[in-house]
Write a structure and sequence with these properties.
single chain; alpha/beta; Rossmann fold; Hect, E3 ligase catalytic domain fold; 2 domains; four-stranded parallel β-sheet; about 10% strand; globular
Length: about 270
């Protein structure tokens, strides 16, 4: 999968050696962010196509420079010849200076049809990473704590926070409800990818790849919620989303059976 690296720590003057493919390393703090992203791509078979990283003169607190790099990245994702890519960051603190900025950027990228993932194995979800590491701009510590408590309380009840996955909408009770039409497309994507033999007693043979599935859907004129054609990245993200099993996960809270599942566990696995 295509990916771009985004971080906010200047490269050290001494050259770092990138870990060789196949070597076993832990993503620990002593690794420079660039090396963390490179290692993540090696382990997950991503193709790094671009870097958005600070110059040697940029200080860690230069949020204007970070914003300029972010807008440069957005510009690369738009236009007639633009190609989307997964955005990889070490953690949310490299991507935004506060939680409100983070959410705004995540939503903008979602509208374009891509997403942000953290290489931090303990907090791969960018929103969860931001909740742990970022403050809420311009708010007192007490107010920040109340907002965080409110977010976690809603999550613990399975109420929808932020955007809803394709195939679902937020009901009047705040819980996820299937969207007719979209839900059928979700089921089709999973069943197509699983292949014809996905019964529990059968060994899956596997179906078409991400690009072939996206092409099949696009050829029928079906678009994402943003009105864009389906991409391999969008198909991959959908297939990895455990929300379709009826499990709601956000801010470290996971609730099984909080809403109607669209996919059987045998197919998802």
């Amino acid at each position: 999968m295509r990916a771009v690296g985004f971080h906010s720590e200047p490269t050290p003057t001494n050259e770092h050696a990138s870990p060789e493919t196949g070597d076993v390393f832990a993503l620990t703090e002593w690794l420079h962010p660039r090396a963390q992203i490179e290692l993540y791509c090696q382990r997950n078979s991503h193709q790094l196509v671009a870097w958005y990283e600070p110059s040697d003169q940029e200080s860690p607190g230069d949020f204007d420079a970070r914003h300029d790099r972010y807008r440069q990245m957005i510009a690369s994702f738009t236009g007639s010849n633009a190609r989307l890519a997964l955005v990889l960051v070490p953690d949310a603190s490299h991507f935004a200076e506060d939680l409100e900025t983070l959410v705004s950027r995540l939503l903008e990228l979602d509208r374009l049809g891509t997403e942000v993932r953290c290489t931090d194995p303990d907090r791969p979800d960018a929103l969860q990473s931001g909740e742990q590491m970022l403050g809420i701009g311009g708010r007192s510590p007490q107010r920040q704590a109340r907002i965080r408590d409110s977010i976690v309380a809603k999550a613990s009840r399975g109420e929808v926070l932020g955007r809803t996955p394709y195939g679902y909408e937020a009901g009047a009770d705040g819980l996820l409800k299937p969207v007719p039409g979209e839900a059928e497309i979700v089921k089709e994507i999973f069943e197509t990818y699983a292949g014809p033999w996905h019964a529990p007693e059968s060994k899956p043979l596997g179906g078409p790849g991400f690009r072939a599935i996206a092409r099949s859907i696009n050829d029928r004129g079906i678009r994402t919620r943003t009105g864009r054609p389906w991409s391999a990245l969008a198909i991959s993200g959908l297939l990895k989303n455990r929300t379709y099993l009826g499990t709601y996960t956000r801010y470290g809270v996971r609730i099984a059976g909080s809403h109607e599942a669209l996919v059987e566990r045998e197919i998802f696995n």
